[in-house]
Design brief:
5% strand, two-stranded antiparallel ribbon, 6 helices, disordered N terminus, 166 residues, mainly alpha, homodimer, 57% helix
């Protein structure tokens, strides 16, 4: 008897589809944080010598697309955090860049074979770990830097969107 | 034939033990961020009207223990973010409080039956969702507020610990 097929109870901690939802929920919140910044401050404001929020967003955005593609395909090309020829120059272009990455993630995610998540690879050619740990890193890194964006907004006297709204 | 027993391939995204490791890795980093604060600034320094890092740490720490206990037992008592009679008054007491929560999490985590993670409950009596989403919230909320602590440290001219070190 195959208990896997006969047992309707899902005892996975989290499915791949749920993890994608979780991440895209976070990415919607990050998009609202970008929106909350005045254009000039998005590109220029910083505290304690840190990068402006634009640069933090470019780090998240340029890792996310190639990260999911890498987990799906096993190919890990070099990542350029500047955005290269697609580098946004206005807040509107930042939002467009963000939305393109959203589509890229949604396109490649379903192509990830389940066994790929526990495979150990050198993410982006450098960081050895299971592919699931790379995905977790991308999400955690986004939350980390977005939290810093919250402080920038507060320092600018702007109320950030609620953390729990996704 | 039971393919679950005969198939050595683990196709779970992440096991409960791996998620605990992931969280405790983050909690070790948060502990190092607490350590990096000068005593006075831990309790007093803030930017843009936000809470001092001590209060952010108390939020994380007072949610984590009862959160894991709640997922394990289904009992969700009221949570007091002040720490009540155990409220730390010095940096050393903050670290001791943190370490007690570490032990609490490690004690209750193995008692969580796997099916409990997908069960929908009102976490802390208020927040309805699957128990796994509550655990994810606790981890994400810690990363979010710790990222804010990084900005406080930078504003104080202090180099925070590397984000990727766990």
């Amino acid at each position: 008897m195959n208990t896997t097929l006969n047992n309707p109870v899902k005892n996975e901690l989290l499915s791949a589809a749920e993890l994608l939802d979780h991440w895209q929920g976070h990415r919607k919140l990050t998009r609202r944080v970008i929106l909350a910044f005045p254009e000039k401050e998005l590109f220029e404001f910083s505290i304690g010598g840190m990068r402006p929020f634009f640069e933090l967003v470019m780090e998240m955005a340029t890792l996310a697309g190639p990260g999911v593609k890498g987990v799906a395909t096993g190919e890990w090309p070099h990542v350029d955090h500047t955005g290269g020829s697609k580098r946004p120059a206005t807040k509107e272009e930042v939002l467009d860049f963000w939305d393109e990455v959203t589509e890229e993630i949604n396109t490649y995610w379903p192509a990830i074979e389940p066994v790929r998540f526990q495979k150990v690879e050198k993410a982006f050619g450098f960081y050895e770990g299971t592919n699931i740990s790379t995905i977790q890193y991308l999400i955690d890194n986004e939350i980390h830097h977005r939290g810093q964006g919250y402080v920038y907004l507060r320092a600018l006297g702007i109320e950030p969107p609620a953390f729990w709204e996704r």
